[in-house]
Amino acid sequence: MRAPRMTYPLSLDLAGKSVLVVGGGPVAARRVRSLLEAGADVSVVAPVAVDALRDLAATGGIAWHARAFASSDLIGPWLVHATTDDPSTNARIVTECEAQRLWCVRADDASRSPAWTPASTTVQGITIAVTSGADPRRSVAVRNAIAEQLAVGSLPIRPQRPSDGRVVLVGGGPGAADLITVRGRQEVRKADVIVYDRLAPLELLDYLDLDVELIDAGKSPKHHTMTQEEINAVIVDRALSGKRVVRLKGGDPFVLGRGSEEVQACVNAGVRVEVVPGISSALAGPLAAGIPVTHRGTSAGFTVISGHAIGDVSALAASDLTLVVLMGVATLPRLVSELVLHGKGADTPIAIIE
Fold this sequence. Notes:
By secondary structure, this protein is of the alpha/beta class. It contains ten helices and 16 strands.
């Protein structure tokens, strides 16, 4: 049994440096694409080439030499990729490269290659590179697993270097940690400061770094931990001090969540602000109870109002749309009485979801 090969992981700055790719097939095209993304000056040597390489050559993206490999091709490049479909040619290229102390990546047989490229990708500004020696499929599987976890915010992605302060309003959805959006979860994991509401998915806070500042801004009937003005002030203050602030809310920030006031406070203070939408409880609440807010032949739409600002009751009573009332516990008796008074049938179905 062959002993494991000892290797040294390394990242190369190839910007502006000459790289030779020998071969003109699909493998060569993939390697060329990655090399160009790294800023390399790429030359391809191959008698024939796939359309992708021909197109790059036609537009000046690469230099294509339509002929067989020659030893003189090794004069000048910093790195060589042997990607032909002929094992003997690839072996010859490796041998000649080693004689000239040039690193060569042999695409057809990693076990006989002095160097190889890892399975790599970039997620949220983080480059993942995985290698398992002569088993590239295993490397790809591990890379994909890590990338998936980074993409959904299940791994640490918080920047460790100071950055410009900003505020991100994140809609947490119905409250369960698995019902927030992928983007919302990512922003929570990157935060330096989180100002959170009572109905936000608080389970996410259990997995944050210990130095993340957590500020409870929860509101409940007749009890506010912080006034809206205090919330506006704290998110602006932390952002101006260079922190990445997440304002974590339940539902959607712009559906009776006072998110627009917080955005305006940031804009007025010159603070960068973004909004990540969430699923509003106006939709998620009825759904959780098995109640559709629209149904063919019953209701073709719905109206959402605040129980604290009911508005024109006569118009609500006359409408045949589903009426969704948020924050309506305290005002429910008055609302029902006024709806009936203005002509709504007393037998109209009603559901109270809390």
